[in-house]
Design a protein that fits this description.
Elements (H helix, E strand, L loop, with lengths): L1 H16 L1 H8 L3 H4 L1 H20 L5 H18 L6 H28 L6 H30 L1 H22 L11 H5 L5 H13 L1 H7 L2 H9 L6 H23 L3 H22 L3 H30 L3 H28 L6 H31 L1
Helix pairs in contact: 1-6, 1-7, 1-8, 4-6, 4-16, 5-6, 5-8, 6-7, 6-16, 7-8, 7-13, 7-15, 10-15, 10-16, 10-17, 11-16, 11-17, 13-15, 14-15, 14-17, 15-16, 16-17
Length: about 375
């Protein structure tokens, strides 16, 4: 399942590095080609809840295989697509399995281990996503530049096929839920704690995206790095993300919601320091690693929190986590663009991130207070 995460992470971020080649290949300008990124994100937002709910009564292993098969076929089909509209449509299809795959894979991973190791099991599935930023995205970008932009997607599709074969061989069969249904899955949305957990992800995680979306011009403008150094800096960020995913289980062992609150506070501090640190090359590299590590600890903990509070609607809630992260991506990047357009400078996107992280802490505190009140009422 981690191999599937690697494939999904590669396709999600490789488009940014190949926009000039894609624009030239389909005959549009680069800003217009940027809508292809939005098409994939829209596919994630639409596909995550839809496919998770429709597959509620299906065996989870079979559903995972079907989702990754759709992912692989859509990517290989891009080899034969040369029009802008066709590429937009296929990239939307490519995004459909993203959130549902991660959501269902997280549930399967958590079911295979002892309760106290659930967060680490979820993190191991998401580990493929972080490793893709170190290996998958740079390699796929290189192949796309050398052999044509379609090559990057075809290779990603081949990785998806490998994931299907690996899951068929090693993921144990899990029976379909006998009481699963569309209405049962949607019942999770009646729970305030589910909405609060989704709110933590949307607002709190948006702080990371407000910074990461502009890390290339930030490091070049504030730190004096050349464009040639940016792939190394991005790989360092990916390395931090991988380390953070490996540590998520240890942080969660002290309590999932407590860990979320502490991590959001740490993210707020790190983002506050990032702007001033970026003026120094050594400190800028250190803080790049840190802002990669801290949010990647947060994602599996948010996933576990949703699984805890959704009760009978776990498939939908787990998948919605990735829809909210894509909304966080859009929110953070948009707010960062506003301060840059206002001429405030590249220190400001990370300052916006501080505000978002603090707001996320507020939502987490609200969730904790509601939980205590519900426990007291039950007693």
């Amino acid at each position: 399942m981690g191999v599937g995460g690697f494939a999904i992470g590669t396709t999600e971020f490789v488009t940014m590095g190949l926009l000039p080649e894609i624009a030239d290949g389909v005959g549009v300008d680069i800003p217009t080609a940027g809508h292809i990124v939005s098409a994939y994100a829209l596919g994630v937002v639409v596909g995550a809840p839809t496919l998770a709910v429709l597959g509620a009564r299906l065996p989870r292993k079979g559903l995972l295989v079907a989702l990754m098969t759709l992912f692989a076929v859509a990517h290989v089909a891009l080899m034969f697509m040369h029009t802008y509209g066709g590429v937009m449509a296929l990239r939307f299809v490519c995004g459909l399995p993203h959130g549902a795959f991660f959501g269902i894979a997280s549930l399967v991973a958590a079911s295979l281990v002892a309760p106290q190791r659930r967060t680490q099991a979820v993190a191991n599935v998401l580990l493929g996503l972080t490793v893709s930023n170190i290996v998958g995205v740079p390699v796929a970008t290189m192949l796309g530049q050398r052999f044509g932009w379609q090559a990057a997607y075809v290779v990603t599709g081949v990785i998806g096929v490998l994931c299907v074969l690996a899951m068929l061989a090693w993921v144990p069969v899990q029976r379909a839920s006998t009481d699963g249904s569309v209405l049962r899955e949607f019942s999770a949305l009646r729970r305030p704690q589910v909405w609060l957990a989704l709110g933590i992800g949307t607002v709190g995680f948006g702080g990371m995206f407000s910074t990461y979306s502009y890390i290339s011009p930030t490091m070049q403008t504030l730190g004096g790095w050349s464009a040639a150094a940016i792939p190394f800096i991005l790989s360092l960020y990916g390395t931090g993300s991988t380390v953070g995913a490996l540590l998520a289980g240890r942080v969660a062992s002290r309590g999932v919601l407590r860990g979320i609150f502490v991590l959001l506070g740490a993210i707020a501090v790190a983002l506050a320091l990032f702007g001033p640190a970026a003026h120094s090359k050594p400190l800028g590299l250190v803080m790049t690693f840190v802002i990669g590590a801290l949010p990647s600890m947060l994602v599996p903990m948010l996933q576990t929190r949703l699984m805890d509070v959704a009760h009978e609607g776990q498939s939908l809630a787990a998948a919605l986590n990735h829809s909210t992260l894509n909304l966080a991506n859009a929110l953070g990047a948009w707010l960062g663009s506003l301060v840059l357009a206002a001429g405030l400078g590249y220190e400001w996107p990370s300052r916006i991130g501080v505000v978002l992280a603090l707001l996320g802490m507020g939502v987490a505190a609200w969730s904790a207070a509601l939980g205590r009140r519900q426990t007291a009422t039950a007693h």
